[in-house]
From TrEMBL:
Name assigned to this protein: diguanylate cyclase
EC number: 2.7.7.65
Cellular component terms per the entry's GO annotation: plasma membrane
Lineage, highest ranks first: Bacteria, Pseudomonadati, Pseudomonadota, Gammaproteobacteria, Alteromonadales
Annotated organism of origin: Pseudoalteromonas gelatinilytica
SMART domains: GGDEF
Length: 298
């Protein structure tokens, strides 16, 4: 059910609860719900749907931001300010829970406004469910099922986009390739369940080692890649050292004597996908030849 925290005041001569200073902030009645549905159906982007809906909801409430939380994560309308007071609504459709819609406003939400927003939700839920279904399918196509990391197909697309941006903006970036030392022995001696646990642990190590601007990929098996949005070789070394340090601190990975070998290279605006990948792969080969559990540039 709706979990809405409301502070209200009685507005004289109206008989309903409205936000403080409502006379100054209540705008005209919203346009037809049919028009809203038609606009919401123009996109399958969750962020796009929230942005369209937020524009419509601003005709009822002085809104600083709109956020939606679901099993796919957190999305919000463009330009949202989530520092104001949150007002939460559970969204359900045909006994299916979609997630939680959160309005942010500096003014308390009155009962009358709450009721009108609930009416608007009937226009939102079907387009939003379609967008959620689409994004679930899209995620299955681009995510590794075991670790939740981006997969090889997504890597190919991301590398091509990075190189195109590098050519246009002359902004180099780095490619890092990684694999796990002694991983085959883990599968052979302890079984694939333990092997899967090791892979998931290493995926968590990678997540803890990079910044929000960097991207992580699993190719399959024990092969991983990072696209590092930084033009400096020193950044690669910092990230590689952090990864090897976290691996050495992992009880699971030390228990099975698993370490990581790492190769990296800096991409430039003359590169094609095969060239930059081949250089990083040669760096990985150098790390293996140097005794493993180390990082080498090429």
């Amino acid at each position: 059910m709706e979990n809405v925290h409301i502070l209200t005041q009685r507005v004289s001569a109206r008989g309903e609860f409205l936000p403080f200073s409502a006379e100054h902030y209540r705008i005209s009645e919203p346009n037809s719900p049919h028009d809203l549905v038609a606009r919401l159906q123009t996109t399958l982007s969750i962020e796009g749907i929230l942005t369209i809906f937020a524009e419509h909801a601003k005709q009822l409430i002085n809104l600083s931001g709109l956020q939606f939380q679901s099993a796919l994560g957190v999305s919000q309308s463009v330009g949202s300010d989530t520092s104001q007071t949150p007002y939460s609504f559970d969204l359900d459709i045909e006994s299916e829970r979609l997630g939680q819609l959160i309005y942010f406003s500096q003014f308390p939400m009155g009962k009358a406004i709450e009721a009108k927003l609930k009416q608007l939700h009937t226009a939102l839920v079907y387009p939003l469910r379609n967008a959620l279904m689409y994004n679930r399918v899209l995620r299955l196509a681009t995510k590794d099922a075991l670790t939740g990391l981006n997969n090889r197909s997504q890597f190919n697309d991301s590398l091509a986009q990075k190189l195109e941006r590098c050519r246009r903006q002359h902004r180099p970036f780095s490619l890092m390739l990684l694999d796990l030392d002694n991983f085959k022995q883990v599968n052979d001696n302890f079984g694939h369940k333990i092997g899967d646990d090791v892979l998931q642990e290493f995926a968590n190590v990678l997540r803890s080692s990079v910044r929000g601007t960097d991207s992580i990929f699993r190719f399959g098996g024990d092969e991983f890649a990072l696209l590092i949005d930084d033009p400096e070789f020193t950044t690669n070394k910092v990230i590689a050292d952090r990864i090897m340090s976290l691996v050495s601190q992992s009880g699971l990975m030390t228990q099975y004597d698993v370490t990581s070998s790492i190769g990296y290279t800096l991409a430039n605006n003359q590169d094609c996908e095969n060239e930059v990948f081949a250089r990083a792969d040669k760096g990985l080969y150098k790390a293996k030849a140097a005794g493993r559990n180390c990082a080498r540039a090429f």
